[in-house]
Amino acid sequence: MTVPVIELEQAWALLLELRHRVRTAPNSAENPAALLEIAADGSWIAKAPLTESSAELFDLYLPMARACRERPLTVAHLGQSLDGRIATESGASCYVTGPENLTHLHRMRALCDAIVVGAGTVEHDDPQLTTRRVAGPNPVRVILDPRRRLAARHGVFQDQAAPTLLICSAELADVPAPGAAEIIGVAVQDGGLNLAEIVRRLHQRGLFGVFIEGGGLTVSAFLEQGLLNQLQVTVAPLIIGSGRPGIRLPPIQDLAQGLRPRHRRYALGEDMMFDCHMQD
């Protein structure tokens, strides 16, 4: 009897099934449909033949699919040009990377519990932050807007496609919420929101898989404060020559002070993604 090969579409369905099980019954068995055996350290063995693309899918997405109280996970992503730019000087960023990276973002959205972006991303891109390109649920949308600069007209506040949290300085939390958003006030620390407190508050709500999708300042702040488990950087074969840089951290004096994380590379169409593990 020939055993069916696990193709890409079935592999994605298995990941969604696993994510649903972890969310609804975290103490139950994790092995979806008995086709995937997952060890405590996250390594896995398929119980059926699978394609190379399906194996890559499991390697890349299993950590977020398994995120829970015992295994919280915070992952950030940036898409940039060969010269390290994520947008032009005016903020235009659609699209630096190709369609395969956009599909990757939507897969991460479908598996995470909460997607986090800064006010600048909403202001310039007016993103929907939903899973339109793949099967899977929309995550809770979290907008970081410390000074309450965003207008209520933005789609994330009006479309009601998913629960939306607006996180701002505690002293501005009494200002009426834009649209259907819920306001959460947190303390300001060193001129910005207390990001560790934000992660803690999300965990309190049962949101243990957190995906930081942008922009550069937001991702850099989480990275600088040591709050990322993984950092994904997708590099496109594009030279912009000027514009907004991706990662911005305090200056170092020697390259030995730089970060050289363990990583794996994934080809996304013409782009190359570096999936960096910031904490082992």
TrEMBL record:
One protein family per Pfam: RibD_C
Metabolic or biological pathway: Cofactor biosynthesis; riboflavin biosynthesis
The organism of origin for this protein: Candidatus Contendobacter odensis Run_B_J11
Domain Bacterial bifunctional deaminase-reductase C-terminal: start-end pairs: 76-253
GO BP annotations, alphabetical order: riboflavin biosynthetic process
Keyword terms of this UniProt record: NADP, Oxidoreductase
Molecular function GO terms recorded: 5-amino-6-(5-phosphoribosylamino)uracil reductase activity
Name of this chain's protein: Bifunctional deaminase-reductase domain protein
